[in-house]
Design goal:
- The chain is of the alpha/beta class.
- Strand 7 and strand 8 form a beta hairpin.
- It has one domain.
- The protein is built from six helices and nine strands, in the order H-E-E-H-E-H-E-H-E-H-E-E-E-E-H.
């Protein structure tokens, strides 16, 4: 057990160091309102699973809390994200989900953290919103901010169900934020499902929009004065 923990620790150091160095080469631009994490105003960011390896770079050391599974892969993920300055709560919809979500709710109620969730669950289906992020918003009163990302050059993990990708060195990357959504505490079952479907349609449209915008507007990166610093 001790040998395994040491192994995971050093693997975490190696992966976190590699990711940090790689992400420093990316040209990042954030678009839409509100822009990026602000410690003065905690928010819940909702994104699709495939975008996470790009999005991690936006919130390094910016008071972001996330949930990792209780599996062995989740332990490595916890180490990596902790080294990058994230607050990690263990649990997922497949293993320990209820406890993990409760821990995340309690953490968010302190008012010290943002949170970011991949809303199509650990196993999909892809681009279908699960209820967890809406429950988190309902319990905390915080707004959900949809987010979508894209990059000019990427390595796609084709065997993954979500087509997860990693931007290549010196890639141009966009993160696009959508309009906030609130989930009232007294929402009925029917209203909750309506909000879930609305969020799903908004996020599907936002993903398509960022991809189409990127395809025709890469000139947004040509003028340094127009670049928006990550985490504004």
């Amino acid at each position: 057990m001790m040998i395994r923990r040491v192994k995971i620790f050093f693997m975490g150091v190696g992966v976190a160091s590699f990711y940090w160095l790689l992400s420093r080469t990316w040209r990042m631009k954030e678009m839409g309102l509100p822009l990026g994490p602000s410690a003065r105003n905690p928010k819940l960011y909702a994104h699709w699973h495939g975008d996470e390896l790009l999005l991690v770079a936006v919130s390094i050391r910016k008071q972001m809390a996330i949930m990792a599974s209780r599996s062995s892969d989740g332990e490595l993920m916890k180490r990596v994200l902790s080294f990058l300055g994230y607050k990690v709560v263990r649990g997922s919809s497949s293993r320990g989900g209820a406890g993990g979500l409760k821990g995340l709710i309690d953490l968010m109620k302190t008012g010290k953290y943002h949170s970011s969730l991949a809303v199509d669950g650990p196993r999909g289906p892809i681009y279908q919103v699960k209820p967890g992020v809406l429950k988190l918003a309902q319990e905390t009163g915080l707004p959900i901010i949809p987010a979508a990302a894209w990059t000019s050059n990427k390595f796609v993990f084709k065997r993954s169900w979500n087509q997860c990708y990693l931007p290549m060195p010196f890639s141009k990357c966009i993160v696009w934020y959508g309009e906030p959504m609130l989930v009232p505490a007294n929402t009925s079952v029917e209203e909750f499902e309506s909000l879930r479907k609305t969020l799903e349609l908004r996020m599907q449209a936002l993903k398509k929009e960022v991809e189409e915008h990127f395809a025709v507007s890469q000139n947004i990166f040509t003028k340094s004065s127009e670049l928006i610093t990550s985490g504004v």
